[in-house]
Write a structure and sequence with these properties.
Helix 13 (446-466) packs across helix 14 (474-483) and helix 14 (474-483) packs across helix 15. Helices cover 37% and strands 11% of the residues. A hairpin with a 5-residue loop joins strand 9 (165-167) and strand 10. It contains 16 helices and 15 strands. The chain is of the alpha+beta class and 515 residues long. The structure holds adenosine-5'-triphosphate. Residues 31-37, 39, 52, 54, 89, 113-116, 119, 163-164, 166, 176-177 line the site of adenosine-5'-triphosphate. Adenosine-5'-triphosphate is lined by residues 31-37, 39, 52, 54, 89, 113-116, 119, 163-164, 166, 176-177. GO terms for molecular function: ATP binding; protein serine/threonine kinase activity.
């Protein structure tokens, strides 16, 4: 599928060998890879200064991918060059990779940065749930100060989350990953509609994606700071319940609509509860009163407070019970382990959501349908990722049949679409789910491609409902949106003529699978 709304990412990236030199910097081991590139440990050949080098390839990409990547790289480079603050990761140099033997990396951009020991995301991954991470308040002070500096300088981070907070060997706290950082134009800015579900403010879902991308305001960073502070002070608990990022984001939207109260972790210190509650004010306007600077000042003032109340053991048990009951009453997602390894989607330490484990029979695929047996559980598990009733196994199966005929090796290079769900790699990266739990998100892997399809069509479904398109047309609109984009369907107010034959095919398959 192609979508104008979510361009991001790159094809699987080849790696540079250890010992490779980029303008005076020698690369060592790979530290990790993100949506855009790979980060290597490195040192200066001249004096051994340690660094991390983020290599962002542009060479081997299709034109559309290159444009999307180029835009984000330009942002990252521009912001990195301008940012100069103790709580923003420093970029020592921006270089070009000279690797004629590795065409995919030849000409790539390399950002030479301060090297961190770990990201806050990694620290949270190994933290004990319920306890603040080590040095929690100092970390939050650093994050708030870095954010305040960005906002004062006229930038919005746009993707604040634990993975984008780096921790140095000497206790440094740096905000990083400025691919989505964008300069304010008046009171808001536009970025590609990416971000991270878990840290997106609820209003993000109801705003139209304009031709420039999604509108992002500093209050989006304030919301993200509230989520992050809650995670840091509780060892990873997200402030909204749910077994998946999608469910948590729906819970946040329910809260913003006033249908559910904000339930912060009961063990949080009162002052911190207030601060986090202010950050998580339900809408942009209510959050406006709190600037990153005012938060940074408040966080400074709370530096003495440990973040957690002392709770006697018995009371603590009671609180856990109350929280579990609250969550059960607020279940939004058919959670539990779906068996398809959606580990990356799970909230760290988020309480299991107990709901009806089986979807209703309606929408399940009949035994004698032509859906390959091996794919059935994959499709059923993928459909469970979405609570919207339109997104059924039958609908996913119909979409897949129309896209690829269930062929995992299907390819339409002319339109840059591959695999069983015909993902355009750059779009896939924006939504990617690790459906088979192998630690990799690969559009050629049917479980990954189908789980990601489910997440994406779930989002389409919601966009079309918000746009008040006729609910009885939702399956057709989803099929059209998957082929074009949410924006095209919303702007045309229905199925665009040019994809009508494809949509009719999906509806025929759906009717057969729903029989
Ligand atoms: N300056 C750095 N020092 C040490 N490790 C780093 C540095 N920058 C990034 N990393 C680590 O390298 C890995 C990849 O980082 P990168 O910024 O490319 O992607 P990401 O933030 O994980 O994902 P994405 O950019 O797709 O959101 C992560 O584990 C990150 O913690």
């Amino acid at each position: 599928m192609t979508s104008s709304g979510a361009e991001r990412g790159a094809l699987p990236t080849p790696r540079l060998p250890a010992g490779f030199r980029i303008q005076g910097w020698e690369l060592g081991a790979v530290i990790g890879s993100g949506g855009w590139g790979t980060v290597y440990a490195a040192h200066a050949v001249a004096d051994g200064t340690t660094a991390a080098v983020k290599v962002l390839p542009t060479g081997a990409l299709a034109p559309g991918q290159r444009a999307a990547l180029g835009e984000l790289v330009a942002r990252e480079v521009r912001f990195s060059a301008e940012a100069d603050h103790p709580h923003l990761v420093r970029t020592h140099a921006v270089c070009t990779v000279d690797a004629p033997d590795l065409p995919a990396l030849d000409g790539a951009i390399a950002l030479v940065m301060d090297r961190a020991e770990a990201s806050l995301g990694q620290v949270l991954d190994s933290a004990g749930t319920g306890r603040p991470v080590p040095d929690a308040v100092r970390v939050l002070r650093g994050v708030a100060a870095g954010l305040a500096h960005m906002h004062d300088a006229g930038w919005v981070h746009g993707d604040l989350k634990p993975a984008n907070v780096l921790l140095g060997a000497d206790g440094e706290v740096w905000l990083a990953d400025f691919g989505l950082a964008t300069e304010l134009d008046g009171t808001h800015a536009y970025v590609p509609p990416l971000g991270t579900l878990d840290h997106l403010p609820p209003e993000w879902w109801s705003q139209r994606t304009g031709s420039h991308g999604a509108v992002v305001r500093p209050t989006a960073d304030i919301w993200a700071f509230g989520v992050l502070a809650h995670q840091v002070l509780t060892g990873g608990l997200h402030p909204f319940p749910g077994a998946t990022a999608r469910a948590r984001s729906l819970a946040a939207q329910g809260y913003a609509r006033g249908t559910a109260p904000l339930r912060l972790d009961a063990g949080l210190d009162e002052e911190w509860r207030r601060l986090i509650g202010d950050c998580l004010a339900p809408d942009h306007a209510a959050r406006l009163r709190h600037t990153a600077q005012s938060l940074a000042t408040r966080v400074e003032g709370l530096a003495g407070a440990g973040g957690r109340r002392r709770i006697p053991p018995v009371a603590a048990v009671a609180l856990v019970g109350a929280a579990a009951a609250a969550v059960a009453g607020f279940a939004l997602f058919g959670g539990g382990d779906s068996g398809d390894g959606g580990g990356d989607e799970r909230g760290r330490g988020a309480p299991a959501v107990v709901t009806d484990a089986h979807r209703p029979a309606a929408g399940e695929i009949p035994q004698d349908a032509d859906v390959p047996a091996a794919l059935r559980p994959v499709i059923v598990n993928a459909a469970r990722r979405c609570t919207d009733e339109e997104v059924t196994p039958a609908l996913l199966a119909a979409l897949i049949k129309a896209e690829s005929g269930f062929d995992a090796n299907a390819a339409r290079p002319a339109s840059d679409e591959y695999g069983i769900a015909m993902w355009t790699p750059s779009v896939f990266r924006a939504w990617a789910v690790d459906g088979d739990g192998d630690g990799d998100k690969d559009y050629r892997s049917p479980p990954d491609a189908i789980a990601t399809m489910s997440l994406y069509v779930c989002w389409l479904d919601q966009r079309f409902k918000q746009a008040r398109l006729p609910t009885e047309d939702l399956p057709a609109l989803i099929a059209a949106g998957y082929r074009t984009s949410d924006r095209t369907v919303i702007e045309e107010g229905g199925v665009p003529e040019r994809v009508r034959p494809h949509v009719e095919k999906v509806l025929r398959f759906l009717a057969a699978y729903e029989r």
